[in-house]
Amino acid sequence: MHARISRRTALSAGALALGATAMPATATAAPASAAAARYANPLVRQRADPHITRHTDGFYYYTATVPEYDRLILRRARTIGGLADADEVVLWREHASGPMGAHIWAPELHRVDGRWYIYFAAGDAEDVWRIRMYVLENAAADPFAGEWVEKGQIATPWDSFALDATTFVHGGTRYLAWAQEEPGIDSNSNLYLAPMSDPWTISGAPARLSQPTYDWETRGYAVNEGPAVIQRNGRVFLSYSASATDANYCLGLLTASAEADLMDPASWAKSPEPVFRSDEENGQYGPGHNSFALAEDGRTDLLVYHARQYREIDGDPLLDPNRHTRVQPLGWHPDGTPDFGAPVPDA
């Protein structure tokens, strides 16, 4: 979600989807450039790492990172456009001390086995860059009601920088995808996948699906993060964000056959070029940390992401609040692969 500073890079610098929502196996979507004017962009200002999911109650639910990095918020509306003016409720605030006390990042709301879950990343109040993944649970039918219970940290084989958890179901198995710094690998974060035994616990050894190796993945920082999954046309597509969170931020794509073993890294092919990047002509910079949603017609796929309206940033990009939530149709190429197009201009 951010140009993360691990312990290693902090010293040198001086300082993941809408995967859980059921979707049809095929879709007839308009090209990314068509019908984009149906959504006024930016949709929500100063909200990064946006995640939109539509529940069976007919509401769209929206979570995102706030610039203060101190709380988890939720909105809902009957339409995507309605989220812009929907009431925003604070569901949870950072702890005053200890774990979950700083850098509250990239929340995602998922409905799993009849309960609501929020996956998010957080630092320690006394060590703000000790970023780990955490889960909240709510047994109420209405996520605005009931009690949000802290289920704790998602444990992985390494007690290291970890964030951007998302979950999805494929072939009857629920998976967790996330980003983490793995000891012994010279990168800020790589992408991992593991099956889950319950909504806050992974089972078995994780598979490392990708690490930043291309030039466009290593500008500013060597980052693969913010995974998001969409399943279409006999394939599983996993988008992710790469590089620093300035104008270099962009989306990459991993693709696997729906019949393949998703836990085998060899099942996944990485696009050699970014599939979504800054666009000077349209005035959009650093598009990334996306999720996928379905439009009101129930058929058109949507790309949800954040971007800035200017290239130059004064100081640390993480301190610049103007990463705005944006939505546009996701197109499909004739071969059945997603056509992200370009970030559309403000409208």
Please describe the structure with a list of short key phrases separated by commas or semicolons.
single chain, 347 residues, Tachylectin-2, Chain A, five-stranded antiparallel sheet, 22 strands, globular
Provide a descriptive summary of the structure in words.
The protein has 347 residues and is an all-beta fold. It has one domain (7-339): 5 Propeller (Tachylectin-2, Chain A), CATH 2.115.10. The chain contains 1 helix and 22 strands. The chain has one helix spanning 7-13; strands spanning 48-54, 60-65, 71-77, 89-93, 99-112, 115-124, 127-138, 149-153, 162-170, 173-180, 190-198, 201-202, 207-210, 224-232, 235-242, 250-257, 269-270, 285-294, 301-308, 324-329, 331-332, 338-339. The strands form 6 sheets. Strands 9, 10, 11, 12 and 13 form a 5-stranded antiparallel β-sheet that branches. Strands 1-2-3-4 form a 4-stranded antiparallel β-sheet, with no helix packed on it. It is globular and about 45 Å long. It starts with 6 loop residues before the first helix and ends in an 8-residue tail after the last strand.
Q: Secondary structure elements and their pairing?
A:
Elements: H1 7-13, E1 48-54, E2 60-65, E3 71-77, E4 89-93, E5 99-112, E6 115-124, E7 127-138, E8 149-153, E9 162-170, E10 173-180, E11 190-198, E12 201-202, E13 207-210, E14 224-232, E15 235-242, E16 250-257, E17 269-270, E18 285-294, E19 301-308, E20 324-329, E21 331-332, E22 338-339
Antiparallel strand pairs: 1-2, 2-3, 3-4, 5-6, 6-7, 7-8, 9-10, 10-11, 11-12, 11-13, 14-15, 15-16, 16-17, 18-19, 19-20, 21-22
